[in-house]
Amino acid sequence: MKVSIGMNLTTAPWGGGNQFGQALVTLLKQRGVEVCFDLNAPDLDVILLADPRPELQITAYTHHDIIKYLRWVNSRALVVHRVNECDERKGETNHVNPRLRQGTLAADHTVFVSSWLRDLHLSQGMKPQSHSVILNGSDTRIFNANGHRRWNRKSPLKLVTHHWGHHWLKGFDIYQRIDDLVLQKNIEFTYIGKLPDGFQLKNARYIMPKSGKELADILRQHHVYVTGSQFEPGSNHQNEGALCGLPLLYRESGSLPEYCAGFGIGFEAEDFEEKLDRMLAEYEVWADRMPAYPHTADRTADAYFQLFANLLENRDALLAQRQWPEHLPVIEQNKNQAIRWLHNLRDPLMNYVQSLKIGDGRYTVASQGMTEAGQGMRLAFSCWALKMFYMLGAKDGQDELVNFIRLFQVNGNPLHLPFARNAFLDPVLIKHIVWARPRRQRLFDRIFRPRRFTHLQAVVSAETKQAIASLAQVGAQTAYPYTGFPHSPDALMRYLQGLNWSNPWESGAHIATIAVYLRTEAPRFLPQDKVHILEEICRRFINSLIDQGTGAYFRGQKPDYGQMVNGAMKILTALEWLEIPIHCPEKLIDTVLSHLPEAEGCYLVDAVYVLYRCTLQTDYRKTDIQAYAVQLVDLLVNHFNPLDGGFSYYLGRSQPFYYEVRITHQHPVSDLHGTVLLTWAAAMILKLLEADSENWHVMKA
Fold first, then answer.
1. In CA terms, which of 98, 393, 465, 614 is 20 to 30 Å from 307?
2. Is the alpha carbon torsion for 99, 100, 102, 103 positive or negative?
3. Per residue in 617-640, pLDDT tens?
4. Do 81 and 97 sit in the same domain of this protein?
5. Is residue 69 part of a domain?
6. How, if at all, do strands 248-251 and 224-227 pair?
7. Is 106 part of a structural domain of the chain?
8. 468 with 482: CB under 8 angstroms?
9. How many structural domains does the chain have?
10. Does residue 451 have a pLDDT over 50?
């Protein structure tokens, strides 16, 4: 048997997951099992997914990595997903459980560390192919009763507890009461571990966090182990106390009754003192039972070994039952597979956008986790929805969105700011940006720096450009021509020269915005010859930015890859609107193909856009571009959330900010911005792969 354990184990003191992993590896090796911690071997029998969250230190690989291995290396390996966590234990998160459900989609069998945890996840929609419960256990080589002395009733009864975490739900409401009871009853209390900020023990003994043998020695100096923890999924702290010979005084919450029943007394918050008095009276009865406490690391590890063996005996039947959602598998380096996956996206993406609709033309940015600003903003979200309708070829609903977006245009300049005349203004966004800057600074800027391009002005311009471009994409225009941009030759040249071209990403966005205005708005209030003069200024200025070595556009020292490609995307957007050819498309292709982009929405779509636009002018490195595009599909898959049908801007979490205003708390759900960007990327990749894309349309930025 060859087993891969998806854990980055450490010999240093760590949490219960690391203890479990160490014990499991030791037993498996004793049984002759070959153990590794990666997916490099082509002949793995069993893969244990420890946690699908890649940001955790203990996670060696995720469910996406496993699916890729099964699809393209070894489809006969069986996947076991160990679930040992939940949102409830901290009471202030709601992103863990959904991400665990995603991991289970890749598993042939799911192991829960308690029946309570199993029932919790099943009630919230987790649908494992098969499942079982294996309780955690602690290492008896360390945690044992050797040297423990029972209470003799002559001295105070010594209570003890320990926790790595210091969240209030660890039981600090109970520990505070015990601290008060020390002066009233014949007891002493020791707390080992971290304390919440501001929490103090007045009468109890406090010891900094300990682990291993040092912790066990301290536990054995006590008589009763108490735990007031709530919603524990399957902890080890009570196991460690019990194996050291201490009867358990435990809270009737979470998995604790499942672990502790028969080896101590359970309590509720309301009857704690009564149950403490009962332990004082019945101590010997419970102490006599402790040598039989069953939850040891060896027993747990053996249960996993037996599970692996049983699963392998029924491997063919399990493989026949394997049914992954069609959107979950990671794409191999194969053009046809990539095209098939992209084509299958259209319906779930459209359903996702429709699920965010909250009124006539109104959409929200995500399904959950929005801030006050995120709940109140509307303009940007409706623009993104309109772009999605266009790209996916959905006609119904476009008129409603156009009418709603037009409601945000002002007639005049109520903000009395450059760039704000006839602009599109989202009151909630403007309010949060204004509040973020002190009033004294705002007055200073208006009086002494009237020509300075402030953050607020930049946001007003960008929001207006997005609204105008979104409307133009579906053949609509603004109610009033937008006139708030530099539209004299001198003002335009000053504006372009004043941008920081060593940062081409940000500066390029401004010239792309100007290009949109020159093509959509300027002809509505300027003579055509003046419009041509302004366009010529932009053309000549862009010519001055060309770097012949990279094909990118910047001044000064060569920027890093992300700045070059993202900056080039902005300039190419301007060129597209102004109908000007790309200057050095072959060099730009070489630059993009030299790296893969970062795993964020803007970086991904910008790389695709630059390649897509260049291929409209040249067939240079066509095969390499298609191979690169398939690799990018692999990145898109990692951003796709099969639970809601959309894309997230960041891997596994929604985009938190929009122009420095927090709009979400980064829950593990898709977001509308990530979805519109990566849908755009998908539409362009289909073009790059020369696939049938009748129902997909590439938008203009």
1. 98
2. positive
3. 999 999 889 989 998 998 898 899
4. yes
5. yes
6. parallel
7. yes
8. yes
9. 2
10. no
Q: Contact 86/119 with Cβ under 8 angstroms?
A: no
Do residues 612 and 644 lie in contact, with contact meaning Cβ atoms separated by under 8 Å? no
Q: Quick check: 254 and 89 in contact, CB under 8 A?
A: yes
pLDDT for 452 equals 46
DSSP code of residue 526: S
Q: From CA 693, how far away is CA 641, in angstroms rounded? A: 22
What is the pLDDT, as a whole number, of residue 331? 47
**DSSP code per residue over 28-84:** HHHTT-EEESSS--TT-SEEEE--S-TTSTTBS--HHHHHHHHHHT-TT-EEEEEE-
Any idea which of 35-44, 421-430, 444-453 has the lowest mean pLDDT? 444-453
Q: How far is CA 578 from CA 49, 302, 537, 569, 609, in A?
A: 52, 69, 12, 14, 17
Q: Which residues 6+ apart lie within 8 Å of 11 measured at CB?
A: none
Is the domain of 168 the same as that of 122? no
Q: Which domain holds residue 284?
A: 157-295
Could you tell me whether strands 78-83 and 205-207 are parallel, antiparallel, or unpaired per DSSP bridges?
unpaired
**203: helix, strand or coil:** coil
pLDDT bracket for residue 332 (50, 70, 90): very low
Query: If you average pLDDT over residues 673-687, what whole number do you get?
Result: 97
The answer on pLDDT for 449 being more than 60 is: no
The answer to whether residue 192 is domain-embedded is yes
In which band, very low, low, confident or very high, does the pLDDT at 447 lie, cut at 50, 70 and 90? Answer: low
Please tell me whether residue 18 adopts helix, strand or coil conformation: helix
Confidence at 439, pLDDT banded by 50, 70, 90: low
84 with 167, same domain: the answer is no
List the CATH number of the domain containing 176.
3.40.50.2000
Q: What is the pLDDT of residue 323?
A: 72
Residues 6+ apart with CB under 8 A from 82: 48, 49, 50, 110, 111, 113
Q: Are residues 275 and 302 in the same domain?
A: no
